[in-house]
Amino acid sequence: MINFIRGELVDICENYIVVDNNGMGYEIHVPQTVYGMLPSVGETVKLYTYFQVREDGVALFGFVRKEDLAVFKLLITVNGIGPKGALGILSAISVDELRFAILADDAKAIAKAPGIGAKTASKLILELKDKFKLEDAFTASFEANTSGQMSMLDPHGMEGIKEEAIQALVALGYSSSEALKAVKNVAIIQGMTAEDVIKAGLKRV
Q1: Are strands 16-21 and 44-54 parallel, antiparallel or unpaired?
Q2: Strands, DSSP E only, in the chain?
Q3: How far is CA 72 from the centre of its chain?
Q4: CA-to-CA distance for 188 and 184, rounded, in angstroms?
Q5: Contact between 100 and 184 (Cβ < 8 Å)
Q6: Angle between helices 155-171 and 134-146 (to 10 degrees)
Q7: Angstrom distance (rounded) from CA 17 to CA 9
Q8: Whole-prediction pTM
């Protein structure tokens, strides 16, 4: 119903912000990870939103990045995780960290979120794992670590190298979660091999 809201950021509260759009102040619930992306009060902000309608009221949830909203919508499809639960998860860990936790079967990382126990975290992984691709997670991490170098590199070509590096780290005795976390933070440059990625990744484990 409300795809996004753009307006003046007029207030930043503990669990929500207020945006003035054409003289109307919208109270928008946001995850803690959004606060670092917000402009200063008085400046213009744009948030992609999810509008929740319930018998006891309505609520708006907002995200700076469209992809974060997409992940939020996936989370609330899991039985037992409503908008507030999904917001709690995305406050405890970033969307990129959630992707890798799901792909690595790392329920412990997801269970750090308030109100999310190990059982719910495992259920979340089971229901959403097939909706996240390793390639997408690599590409997101790749873009974040290379910034202006994107035109020089092919993130999809790097997927095979990173996957090979992960498999090698697992063979060395590291858990899938440790291997994923190490490799995802390696900034890829042209000409790097899987061995180069492993060496860089081992420094981060």
Answers
A1: unpaired
A2: 4-12, 16-21, 24-29, 44-54, 57-63
A3: 9
A4: 10
A5: yes
A6: 110
A7: 8
A8: 0.69
- CB neighbourhood size of 70 (10 A): 13
DSSP code string of 64-87:
SSHHHHHHHHHHTTSTT--HHHHH
Q: What kind and span of H or E run contains 138?
A: helix 134-146
Q: Write out pLDDT tens, residues 160-175.
A: 777 788 778 777 777 7
Report which secondary-structure segment, H or E, holds 202.
Answer: helix 194-202
Q: Which two tokens stand for residue 151?
A: 């035109």
24-29 and 57-63 beta bridge pairing: parallel
Question: What is residue 173's three-state secondary structure?
Answer: coil
Distance between CA atoms of residues 9 and 1, nearest Å: 21
Q: Which two structure tokens, joined as six digits, stand for 146? A: 């290379």
Task: Name the amino acid, one letter, at 77.
Answer: T
How many other CB atoms sit within 10 Å of the CB of residue 66?
10
How far CA 205 is from CA of 51, 95, 145, 174, 200, in Å, comes to 40, 20, 17, 9, 10
Sign of CA dihedral 6, 10, 12, 17: negative
The pLDDT of residue 32: 92
- For residue 181, what are its two tokens? 């976390």
CA distance 3 to 49: 6
* Residue range 51-109, pLDDT digits in tens: 999 888 899 999 999 989 999 999 999 988 999 999 999 999 888 788 878 877 888 88
With 0-12 / 13-18 / 19 or more C-beta atoms within 10 angstroms meaning exposed / middle / buried, residue 146 is middle
